[in-house]
Description:
Blueprint: E1 15-18, H1 32-40, E2 63-74, E3 77-85, E4 96-97, E5 100-102, H2 110-122, E6 129-134, E7 138-139, E8 144-154, E9 166-173, H3 174-177, E10 184-190, E11 193-199, E12 202-205, E13 211-214, H4 218-232
Parallel strand pairs: 2-8
Antiparallel strand pairs: 1-10, 2-3, 2-5, 3-4, 3-9, 6-8, 7-8, 10-11, 12-13
Amino acid sequence: xTAPPRILDPRRIPVIGAxxxxxxxxxxxxxxxxxRRRFARSAGWQPEFSGDAGGVFAGxxxxxxxxxxxxxxxxxxxxxxxxxRTDHLRDHAGQxxxxxGRSEPEDGSPEATALREAQEEVGLPLGQVExxxxxxxxxxxxxxxxxxxxxxxxxxxxxxxxxxxxAEAFEVPLPHLMNPAHHRRHVFSYEGGxxxxxxxxWTGPGADGxxxxxxxxxxxxxxxxxxxxxxxx
Length: 233
């Protein structure tokens, strides 16, 4: 099978549909208490998406990594803290992602990696982070084997962005992302095959206070979809 070329502009890839036929995660499942209970009984669950192994960089050696899935506690409910990567990075430039990166030998666990990277990338105060569980590994097209570490963030908090890696940080209401009516399916066709991926666009205020669209897609959208399946079961 031919490895797919890189997708340079996912917004231009045709949308073949959305998943409005699937139910949204009920609001009572999205409270901090409900999430703690769900992660306490997470054994035996299988994700919908396990990754893009065999993709563009199939020849690379797998690299262990972790991301923090930060769920910020606000008066109106939980919000997901996301970042937009800077445009000059080698991998995932300009994309929407969770704070995170490759594991180092001294980390000792995916949780330690996720917390260290979140502190380095966005300056998230560790004293306001409550880790509640993990989601299954996700393998990216760049051969990172990523463990999503889910945590509750106690607001208010102050961020300090690493300007080399992170262009901006923003929040998206968790109920928006846990409603599959907002999960769009794309098909990228190329000579020798096709690749499918999800997107979850969100319009919110940018760093300048003006509305802008944040195009959540690829690995980040797939991990959010796995969270949707996990919370809905």
